[in-house]
Amino acid sequence: MPDKAPKSHPIEQTQLFLRIKHPTLDPKEITAVLGMQPEHSVTAGDNVSSAGVRRLFNETYWLAALPSWSQPPFGKPPERSTGALSEFFPEFSAEDRKLLMRVANPYDFSLIAWLRRLDVHRAFIAHINQTDGSVTLLLTRRNKEAPYTLLPSIAKRLSELGLALEID
Q1: DSSP strand E in 11-128: where?
Q2: Residues 55 and 20: beta-carbon distance below 8 Å
Q3: Cβ neighbours, 10 Å, residue 97
Q4: Mean pLDDT taken over the chain
Q5: What backbone torsions phi and psi does residue 162 show, to the nearest 5 degrees?
Q6: At what angle do helices 152-161 and 106-118 cross, to 10 degrees?
Q7: Rounded alpha-carbon distances, angstroms, from residue 39 to 31, 42, 153
Q8: CB half-sphere exposure, 116, CA atoms < 13 A
Q9: What is the pLDDT of residues 78-121, one digit of tens each?
Q10: Exposure check for the chain: N or C terminus, fewer CB within 10 A?
Q11: Is the pLDDT of residue 154 over 80?
Q12: 154: number of Cβ within 10 Å
């Protein structure tokens, strides 16, 4: 009898990224302010690759993979009980906590955790947005056929922080 491959956990099927585009910011400044290393970055302006190829980039591009909920610095999501969710998500309405108990995917918890972590950079994110840049959370999912419900409280937090959410 052939071995069945284990089903991957939903969190392993998703990845969250933070992408910043800006006409003049230096990627090193973004890295320093956020305290995260990018997977990829390009500085706006004239660049020469290590192979000697000259390119002109009209904007800085900075992209970092964000650890999922099950990786440091976060840990495990709270248990799905009304009390645990009330303590962990005091800013959520009772209706959103009930919805979270019913429909939450592991990436919901990662999104919430990263929104909280990025909240300390609210002024920097606002500066980027006010100076013709953009800050986007990218959620990639392997199972693109399954619907994803964005909770109103998560949408509100995205808006308050000036973050776009792109779901792939």
Answers
A1: 14-22, 40-42, 45-48, 54-57, 60-66
A2: no
A3: 20
A4: 78
A5: 75, 30
A6: 30
A7: 11, 11, 29
A8: 13
A9: 555 555 566 666 666 677 667 666 666 667 777 887 888 898 99
A10: N
A11: yes
A12: 18
Q: Which residues pair with 60 in a beta bridge?
A: 22
pLDDT in tens, 28-79: 999 999 999 999 988 877 776 677 777 777 889 999 998 865 554 555 555 5
Cα–Cα distance for residue pair 58/96, rounded to 1 Å: 41
> At 74, which amino acid appears?
F
Residue type present at position 114? W
| Structure tokens that stand for 36 in this block | 């995260």
Q: pLDDT tens digits, residue range 5-20? A: 334 444 445 788 999 9
User: How many whole angstroms separate alpha carbon 143 and alpha carbon 7?
Assistant: 12
* Residues present in the chain in total: 168
Cross-strand partners of 46: 56
Range 66-82 burial, b when 16+ CB lie within 10 A, else e: bebbeeeebeebeeeee
What pTM value is reported for the model? Answer: 0.75
Containing 167, the helix (H) or strand (E) segment is: strand 164-167
Taking a C-beta distance cutoff of 8 angstroms, is the pair 121, 35 a contact? no
